[in-house]
Structures are given as structure tokens and as C-alpha cells.
Write a structure and sequence with these properties.
Layout (H helix, E strand, L loop, with lengths): L6 H8 L15 H11 L38 H4 L7 H9 L1 H4 L14 H16 L15
Helix pairs in contact: 2-6, 4-6
Bound molecules: heme C (HEC).
The site of heme C has 28 residues, from α3 and α4.
């Protein structure tokens, strides 16, 4: 790592080009996003996304990736969610969607994801990522000063 010549990467970044094949989070296909939208339909009875999203029966889900669990300011979370210490990533989201109570014991989200295959969850997350990419934000408190 330390001895790698980073100059080409640096130049590519300057030019806004990023063609390294192992770059994370490859652009999802339109078809994947479309089936993710379908997979989100049951979630949408409790969760909003998009420009006018706000807290409903569940918290809104804009800007979800990298967000601390239980951190939007217009929603009253369970104590379990607030103290979970989770940061939402592909992995933590997939696990939570699969089995909310196993990941956050005592969470107030009641959702049984029978029929949500790995594929379906990946599509769903690709769909949610489009709201991240659109730069839509979530109501969030100022970042903590340091530690807890
Ligand atoms: C019956 C209503 C309901 C359904 C359906 C539902 N949720 Fe939730 N969800 C909730 C509630 C309520 C919470 C708040 C949990 C808490 O505070 O413990 C929540 C929390 C979450 C969170 C944590 C957000 C944060 O701000 O930390 C995520 C992520 C989430 N849900 C995703 C989903 C996805 C994806 C689906 C569909 C696969 C889904 N939910 C289906 C009610 C629901």
C-alpha cells in the first residue's frame, strides 16, 4: 500500500474519473432500482423517502447510508434503537431488514421479511441509495462533540 504509486489515481480523481474496477458501490442498473422500488412497497406503509419525506409511523429514510441509527430529529425512536450504536451500512441494513428484533432487540419496528431474499434486499438497498445520491438529507442533530 505505502509503496504504491498513487499519482495516476490522484490525477483520475482530479479529472473526476474513477475507473478502478474494484471501486465500491457500483452504479446499480435501472432494473435493479425498479425492482428495489417494488420491494420497498411494504416499507412505504411506515417509511417515507424523497424530497418531502418526514417522520411517519417510522422514521424517514433519506441519506440512510452512514447515518447513525435513531438519529433523525423528527421521530421518537425506541430506547433500544437510540442506544443500539449502529451505523447503517449495506451489512447492518440487510441484517436489520431480515430480522429487526435480532439486530436491535426491543425495536418498535414490527416487520417480518419472509420472502426477502438476498437479491431482493440488495435491490431494495440500491433503490434507497438513489435518495442518498440525490443528496436528500435527513433531519439530524449537530454531530456529537466527541465520543458519547
Ligand atoms: C409496520 C411499520 C413498518 C414497516 C412495514 C417497516 N418499518 Fe422500518 N421502522 C418502523 C419503526 C416503527 C421504526 C423505528 C424503530 C425503533 O425506534 O426501534 C423503524 C425503523 C427503521 C430503520 C431505522 C431508521 C433510523 O433512523 O435509524 C430502518 C433502516 C428501517 N426501519 C427500514 C425499513 C425497511 C427497509 C422496511 C421494508 C423492508 C421497513 N423498515 C418496514 C416501522 C416499520
Amino acid at each position: 500500500m505505502g509503496t504504491m504509486n498513487t499519482r495516476p489515481l490522484f490525477l483520475a480523481t482530479l479529472l473526476g474519473i474513477w475507473m478502478v474496477p474494484t471501486a465500491p458501490a457500483a452504479e446499480p442498473s435501472a432494473q435493479q432500482v425498479q425492482s428495489g422500488k417494488t420491494a420497498f412497497v411494504p416499507c412505504a406503509s411506515c417509511h417515507q423517502v424523497g424530497r418531502s419525506a418526514r417522520a411517519a409511523f417510522g422514521p424517514q429514510l433519506n441519506a440512510l447510508f452512514g447515518r447513525r441509527a435513531g438519529s433523525t430529529t423528527d421521530y421518537r425512536y425506541s430506547a433500544a434503537m437510540k442506544r443500539s450504536g449502529i451505523v447503517w451500512t449495506e451489512q447492518t441494513l440487510a441484517a436489520y431488514i431480515r430480522d429487526p428484533q435480532a439486530v436491535v432487540p426491543g425495536t418498535s419496528m414490527r416487520f417480518v421479511s419472509y420472502g426477502y431474499s438476498d437479491r431482493k434486499i440488495a435491490d431494495l438497498l440500491a433503490y434507497l441509495r438513489t435518495y442518498q445520491a440525490a443528496g436528500l438529507s435527513a433531519p439530524a442533530p449537530a454531530p456529537p462533540a466527541s465520543g458519547r
